[in-house]
Design brief:
Blueprint (H helix, E strand, L loop, with lengths): L1 E3 L5 E3 L5 E6 L2 H9 L8 E4 L7 E4 L1 H4 L9 H7 L4 E3 L3 H16 L5 E5 L2 E5 L10 H16 L3 E6 L2 H10 L5 E4 L4 H6 L11 H9 L5 H5 L3 H8 L2 H8 L16 E12 L2 H22 L1 E2 L2 E8 L4 E7 L7 H14 L7 E9 L2 E2 L12
Parallel strand pairs: 4-6, 9-10
Antiparallel strand pairs: 1-2, 3-8, 3-9, 4-5, 7-8, 11-15, 12-16, 13-14, 13-15
Helix pairs in contact: 4-5, 10-11, 12-13
């Protein structure tokens, strides 16, 4: 629990010690580790087909602007020598488990975000190491020793700043943001660098003349809530370096989704179907990486005037393949046609997630 001062500003009774560990270009680094011919070369893990998408890019590829979630055709255009490698999720999951076991040597309070990153609360740790930075050093060294892969780490007193800190010294580094550094660190940060603020929200901030953490901090809570709804409260506090979210061990994710705001509004069905493909790919990559499956597919449509429409379909069993997810998503879209307004954003999500061994497929057979 938090106390508050006269300005209703939360004050932690005891500063937490939180580490955010993030593997460096995880999928691509595994492929380069296992295939010496790929080392030092631009590598993209993902499909090279016309509608494929990049799941991960090596640092050599990132120099050309190749990024995860980028359409493969765009990535190839930006880096003609790009080498595409099919993902091996079973290998990535096995390595991820190795890494989790290293985390567990130090704390039971571990919140995995994906196969390649997690939060750790080491306020009280199993080896009684007083400094969180020393715990991070030990974890990173053991990951390197056991997997021959590099990890970066951020250390701070809350999750938001720990995440920012892990990005600050990438690759293969770590950074500490102490309580006396937090507010100043956030002040000079561009809004687009805030974890949780995507390109569309950053553009909205910029249109309001808000470009940095300091600009956000200078706004009233009422102003931010009026323009950003419930998220405005979150932005108000993180702009002050305050984030009271605990590290949640054994967090169960109930849904996974992806959405994209378009530079130009869409009006044609074929263009919308094409725009759905990378979103479907991203959702299904999560399913493949975690082994989770879901029963309910939801399509989100935001029109040019910001009106939002959603359509869902629940299946009797789990959605068993990427093709099934595409078929259902496109079917939901086709059922809305013809649309009377241009489309600004599309989103696809899969909910009622459970571990694969607890579900059956649509045909009643084990996955």
């Amino acid at each position: 629990m938090l106390e508050t001062d006269t300005d209703d500003r939360p004050i932690a009774a005891q500063p937490r010690k939180i580490i955010h560990v993030d593997m460096d270009a995880f999928y691509a680094s595994v492929e380069q580790r296992d295939n010496p011919e790929l080392r030092g070369k631009p590598v993209a893990v993902g499909g090279s087909r016309e509608r494929g998408v990049v799941a991960a890019a090596s640092y050599e590829a990132r120099k050309f602007g190749v990024r995860s979630a980028m359409p493969s055709v765009t990535a190839r255009r930006q880096c003609p020598d790009l080498i595409f490698v099919k993902p091996r999720f079973e290998v990535y999951k096995a390595i991820s488990q190795q890494i989790r076991e290293i985390f567990a040597e130090h704390t039971p309070v571990i919140e995995p975000l994906s196969l390649d990153e997690a939060y750790l609360d080491v306020t009280e740790n199993l080896q009684n190491i007083p400094l969180a930075r020393d715990i991070a050093l030990k974890i990173r060294a053991k990951i390197k020793e056991e997997t021959d892969l590099n990890a970066s780490a951020g250390i701070s007193y809350n999750k938001f700043l720990a995440k920012l800190a892990s990005d600050h010294r990438k690759p293969n580094g770590q950074y500490v943001i102490s309580p006396d550094m937090g507010p100043a660190f956030v002040e000079g940060l561009a809004v687009g660098k805030f974890h949780g603020i995507g390109p569309a929200t950053a553009t909205k901030f910029n249109a309001l003349g808000i470009r940095t953490g300091l600009d956000i901090r200078n706004q009233t809570l009422a102003f931010l809530e009026a323009h950003f709804g419930k998220s405005g409260t979150y932005y108000y506090w993180i702009s002050r370096g305050i984030d009271d979210r605990p590290v949640r061990a054994n967090r169960i994710r109930k849904s996974v989704g992806a959405e994209n705001t378009f530079f130009e509004d869409l009006t044609e069905l074929d263009a919308m179907i094409e725009a759905l493909q990378p979103l479907i790919d991203k959702v299904w990559r999560h399913c493949e990486a975690t082994g989770n499956r879901g029963r309910t597919v939801t399509l989100k449509v935001k029109f040019f005037d910001f009106e939002i429409m959603s359509r869902s379909r629940s299946m009797p069993g789990a959605v068993a393949s990427r093709d099934d997810l595409e078929r259902i998503s496109v079917g939901l879209l086709e059922a809305t046609m013809p649309l009377q307004k241009a489309v600004r954003l599309l989103g696809v999500s899969l909910s009622s997630l459970q571990a694969g061994d607890k579900l059956e497929t649509q045909f009643g057979l084990p996955i």
